[in-house]
Amino acid sequence: MKYKQVILVRQDLKLPKGKACAQAAHASVDAVLKADQQMVKAWRSEGMAKIVLKVKDEKELVKYFQKAKDEGLPASLITDAGHTVVAPGTRTCVGIGPAEEADIDVLTGELPLL
User: Fold this and answer.
1) Given the DSSP bridges, would you call strands 75-79 and 50-55 parallel, antiparallel or unpaired?
2) Is the domain defined by 3-108 classed in CATH 3.30.420.10?
3) How is the chain split into domains, by residue range?
4) Mean pLDDT for the chain?
5) Please, what is the end-to-end C-alpha distance for the chain in angstroms?
6) What is the per-residue DSSP string for 13-71?
7) 12 Cβ neighbours under 8 A, 6+ residues apart
8) pLDDT mean over 16-30
9) What is the pLDDT averaged over residues 90-100?
10) What confidence tier does 97 reach under pLDDT thresholds 50, 70, 90?
């Protein structure tokens, strides 16, 4: 079986690269902490595949977060503290997985790569 994690990044915020990377890392780590540890172990043994995808805005970000939760996938919605680039409470990224690749692809397979 193949496992992966996807990270969704809002494009309307036009985050600087460093900020986007930091937010994506928050999403990745937090989703892993919410995941089943056997799934994490299997994902790690395969090299911890992570795919970063674009979503256009907050509405789309929240839609995918809710769909992932509805499907029982580990998911994390990142809300920024607002210390640097964006206002406090801004939702920036979502991490989904690690989970079975096919389960994630059903939800996010049509999204473009970052």
Assistant:
1) unpaired
2) no
3) 3-108
4) 97
5) 25
6) T---HHHHHHHHHHHHHHHHHHS-HHHHHHHHHTT--EEEEEESSHHHHHHHHHHHHHT
7) 56, 57, 58
8) 97
9) 98
10) very high
